[in-house]
Amino acid sequence: MRTMIALLLLLFIGIILLEVPALIKKKMWRELVAFSVYLLAGMALSIPQVLGVKLPNPTKVIEVVFKPISELLK
Amino acid sequence: MLKKIAVLLLLIFLTSSLAGCWNRKEITDMAIVLGTGVDWTAEGRLRLTVQIAEPGAFAGEEAAGRGEEATNWVVSAEGKTIEEAARNLAPKVPRNIFWDHCMILVIGEEMARKGTNLVTNFFLRSREPREIMWVLVAKGEAKDFLETYSDLEKTSAQAANLLTRMRTGYSVQLWELAEMLAGKGVQPVVTRVEVKEAGVTPGPGQEMKPPVHKQVEISGVGVFKEEKLIGWLDDYETRALLWLKGEPMEGVITVPDPGEPDKEVSITIRRGSTKVVPEYDGKNLRFAVKVKMEGDMVEQQSRENLAKPEMIKVLEKEMAEEIKKRAFITLEKAQKEYGVDIFGFGDAFHRKYKKAWRELKNRWDTEFAEAEVIIEAEAYVREIGLLSKRAGTPEE
Amino acid sequence: MLEKGKINSLQAILLMISMILPTAVLSVPAITVKSARQDAWLSIIVATVVGLLIAWLVVTLSLRFPGKTLFEYVEEILGKIPGKIVSFFYIWWFLHMNALVIREYGVFLATAIMPDTPISVFHIVVVVVAAYAVRNGLEVLSRANQLLIPTTVLLATVFILSTGNMKLSRMLPVIDTGLLPIIKGAAAPASWLGEIVTFAMIIPYLNRPREAHRVAALSVLLVSFFLTASILEALLIFGPNLTGAWIFPVFNAVRLISVDNSLGRLEIIIVLAWVLGGFFKVGVFYYAAVLGSAQWLELKDYRPLVLPVGIILVALSILIHEGIVDLFDFLARVWPPYALIVFEAGIPLVLLLVALVRGKGGRKNA
């Protein structure tokens, strides 16, 4: 698990190194903010999973709403 | 800088792909299963038997002199399920058991009476065994069957594979069995195999008669009611089963000679077709079965000249009678003795009367057993070989 | 404009086929045959009609706003704030659908070929390749996609080799248990064909937008054709009962092929086609999510978002389902109403109506 975390962090650092310098150079601040927000979302979804923390599953909500419609068709 | 990182990442990706996949298996680490069998033991457990190829014996025709080197190794283990038995097999087999080349699945008689789905589920569910392996029901134990030796082929599994593939009898593949089990319109039949004394291997300088080997033999089919074995049909009846099912037809029909009734004439079947027409008025169930068959006359014992159109007509009539007779015997047995629809009449009925089928399908076998079946046969003799008259017949 | 590439109509058709077909062939036959049984092909016809209606709807809507994608004209129709909210849901939908697609691939490869490989490895590999294509833009994605054409020859060969095991009588009787099971069976294929909604992201980049109607309709018809062929491949061999019992019936049907006992084990062709097609299916939705996000946030370039979205996709694809049973239950019972009612038919229909009422778009503005 420790290696997994290390690999994941390495991946994030790689992505940041790949994208950020160019964005700063071109002064694309709006893009930098969007990039950071998306990357943070990615981190929030991936790091807990590697650590074995159970995240709430967004599709469960969809299931509650739409399964009854399928049942209606029965 | 950027380029260097990209190159580094690419290198890592490329080298990791060189290592191959997780579950790679070298051929020297594999125990290749040629045939497998399952028995139901007296203690109520499953016994899995596998026939494993001895790779050295398959290395080349010259190297594998028969009798010098064993061609296979047969080993068994028990368990509550097939998977458990296979795991119990692992400590005895020093290699990974590899199912992909398994050609036959033999189900012991007791096992078949207990229920085939205890066996087939594992083989259908797992990824390695093929759906096209032949399913056989052994008279007696599957283990004995796999432990026999074949004179002509390298192993008994290969012998059985070739026998079923030639479709000398009724052959069924695993997926076909699964399909028959899944529907209500037909009950399964499975090839029956036996171990019988057959043939000798003569050698030079023998003082005594060479010993007779016990070898595999195909002998009719096992009849099932859903997943349970309830009885057998012999070779003769199996032939008619094929005709009634409309399976590819082969075989020989022997009828009395039109000229001299104490002598016989043999006709091989070339092709044929079967049409099952159900009729149902809400109460009475009737099936009109039309068998059409073409054959070649291959042997004649009498001196009569049969190469005349009117004689051929007589032969055709006799052939049709024989077909009807044999079909009727098998039908009677299925209706009266076993009470199961092994011919797929239910499927034919379903195709024509879809509403009535919904009502009848749950008691189809009783409906079938009471149904009236009219068999009609049409036969044609097309060829008569290279002779017109019997050779050596004195001039008249 | 964010995307400078242009693609021609043929490329668009091929891209739309790759976008719908791969997982449709994988998942739909079992789902549809389970309810419609031997009438599954009738379900596909019903689904095709729905698919064509959705295609007409989305193209009509898009053509009112030339040069604009879904995310751009939503705001014009509904106003800024409601438009942003709808856009957000579409971005979620593209991400969610893609995560499902990725999961289906992982599950298929793991159960059918490589059981010992961790499923996340497949997910990462698919996403990395797709990310590379998406970063290079639509033109590269569609050109690479053209490489798939030869696989259809392989698939046709496989189909022809299977005919030996087929029995036409397995399709009888027609309309066995009434119309309801057929309509029920049509829900899943309709929701797959409805993915043509994603075409709204591509219409502005067609070199001949006037052909958009024809492109969308042809794509739907071709996908239906291939889907019907693959359903029949399984159905004519296994019959309705056994086809409904397999998880990947087409895969099993191809496993049966054995020509003269020497040419066999052809399922790898199917796997090859599915894996290749899968990259493009993932790629299109990936592109839609990234381009949509950039337009939603009014960025000047979508490329910085490609890699973060890739991370989200892989993480989401692992998170959303626990196992294969959960996944296929979702695909059969939740996905069709969820996708069809909300994203494929519902919102586009509302958008078109509002646009008509408020007089937005149309030729006079063009």
How many structural domains in the coordinates of chain B?
2
Q: Which regions of chain B have little confidence, pLDDT < 50, spanning 5+ residues?
A: 63-67
Mean pLDDT of chain C: 89
Strand order of the largest sheet of chain C: 1-2
Give the tally of β-strands of chain B. Answer: 13
Order of helices and strands of chain B: HEEEHEEHHEHHHEEEHEEEHHHHE
Integer-rounded radius of gyration of chain C: 20 Å
Question: How many H/I helical runs of chain C?
Answer: 13
User: Structural class of the helices, strands and pairings of chain B?
Assistant: alpha/beta
Describe the model.
The complex is a heterotrimer of chains A (74), B (396) and C (366). In chain A, helix 1 (2-25) runs antiparallel to helix 2. Chain A has one domain (2-72). The relative contact order of chain A is 0.10. The mean pLDDT of chain A is 87. Helices cover 84% and strands 0% of the residues of chain A. Chain A is mainly α. Chain B is of the alpha/beta class. Chain B folds into two domains: 27-233, no CATH class; 245-396, Nutrient germinant receptor protein C, domain 3 (GMP Synthetase, Chain A, domain 3), CATH 3.30.300.210. In chain B, helix 10 packs across helix 11 (354-360). The N and C termini of chain B lie far apart (108 Å). The model of chain B is unreliable at 63-67 (pLDDT under 50). Chain C is mostly helical and 366 residues long. Helix content of chain C is 73%, strand content 1%. In chain C, strand 1 and strand 2 (263-264) form a beta hairpin. In chain C, helix 1 runs antiparallel to helix 8 and helix 7 packs antiparallel against helix 11 (267-296). Chain C is globular and about 60 Å long. The chains are: A mainly alpha (74), B alpha/beta (396), C mainly alpha (366). Chains in contact: A-B, A-C, B-C. Chain A binds chain B through residues 14, 17-18, 21, and chain B through 2, 5-6, 9.
